[in-house]
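LOG
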Amino acid sequence: MDTEIKKPWILTSFTLKIVALFTMTLDHIGIVLEQYEELSVLVDVFRNLGRLALPLFCFLIVEGVINTKSYGKYSLRLGIMASLVSTVLIVLNFVDSFDGFEVKQFGNIFIDLLLGATAIYCFNKKRVWIKLLGLVPLLISGCSFWASAFECINCDKRVWIYPFFLRTQYGFYSVLMIILIYLGYKLTDLFLNNFGNGAFKNYKNERIIRNLFTILMILVSFVVLFLTYQILDSLDLSVTYKMVDLSIQASSLFAGLIILFYNGKRGYNAPWFKYGSYIYYPLHLVIIFVLISILA
């Protein structure tokens, strides 16, 4: 009996990135349109679809670090984008708000991704002391969460030691998710090494098992986020900073249905798309805000 997995595991990294970029764009459009009450239904649709982006990007970061031939070049691209976005945030800080939006509250998603990539790079090394360094990015993201939460609770105070333009966009959540997805890879190896005989031994593509463990880790990261909010609320911190609205973020779990069909292949990766996908982030934000300004 042929047990090799073939179809419908047909989605490549290219496909996942397209979906992530598209849903991210919908999310940002939804955020901008929140000021129009008559568009509330459309906003809800866009925001919920937009939640699919983060798990997909976190998953692609893990895939990217594990499979890249040069982590230096990979991290350099993330670092350049993180520096660019932080520079823009500093400039925009001199503008109090844009149609009611304050740039300080958004953070820098490329810092999230760079910290997560650095953690995976360290965990993937053999030396124990380097592996332990992989916990530092998680600690940094935790400090980012604390700094933003502290400022939210104490509106008249600022954590100058950790400026807003160096903070993550999702607090500790995104970095934790990246680390847990990587842990899912290791659990997959452990599972296949110990239970890989029998039904699994003829699989030429073990991707389905990895995908299932990835989905499990995304769920675990959401549970950690949920429990964190519950603990903070139990401390009567009613105005506690919320990285994300849990009712909306729950939609991100549906990203698992997309990851389930991932076949482990890179797919289309021409230079224009490889580098253009980075440039797309600031470019699409500029286009959205310009269009909204014109139409407002």
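LOG (cont.) second protein
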Amino acid sequence: MDGATEPPNRLTGGEIRRRLEEITRFRLTGQLERMVEHFSPDVIVHYNCTQVGLFTPGVWRGRAAFLANMRLTEESYEALEGEIVDILVENGNAALRWRTCWRHRGTGGVFTVDMAYFLKWRGDTVAELHEFLDYPGPPAIGREKLSSYEEMLRPREPGLERGEIVRRVNELANFAPSRGPDIGLIRKYYSPDIVCEFVGHRARIPYAGRHVGVEAVINIVRGINVDFEQLNSVLSDILVDGGRLACRRTVQWRHRGTGRRGLVELAEFVRFEDGLIVELIEYRDSVTILEMQGELKVW
């Protein structure tokens, strides 16, 4: 779904944004039949980064299967509120981040969930959807905030052309297993005051949450490299909208302690200003990570 090569469809960027708003509104209000009208009859839906006990992981084929899975969720959970926090559109494809609160109908427990979607249109309906989600931890009080809605509407100039933005993200993601991540490259391309968020809860992933400053990010990268060896990284989808980039990656990791290998799906949202990365939000398949660590639990 690289926006530079995919053929355009018949929807404008503005119309795609309007439809995304309508899709999320229908989902939150339980109007599932109206929601799936925006999806093709043979739509393929991929559920990634799914915690056990809330949503069912897997791949669903066809509008009927997609609708049936959402109805199962509706039986147990009620959507209370939600908001779109980011939308990127390029050449008929889109990436979306939104945050919702769900209440379990049986226990009354409320779950806040951060979600990311990558959507590919064919004609005027969605032909393929990749979903990532996780539970965030408590809000980081006193920390610098991520970009606001106003900044999303009127972003600063990235200071780089599209090709250079994509090249830098690729360069940061790909490194030889024997060498490990290039710390010098991180200092070169990241802003000293970068705001970085690994979506999730520290009870499951120790480095989850919001972090400020390039040195904090470097410490996390080094810590991950101590536990995991990266064997391969494949970039699947790339969208660039002004100074913002959204991408899907599949990374093959080996846990150095257990020796277990796994394919981990990641979704990353990156923002550039004046040639530097000033914001990074990352979703990870935390179920696979916990399985590799030998400590998968039901939450």
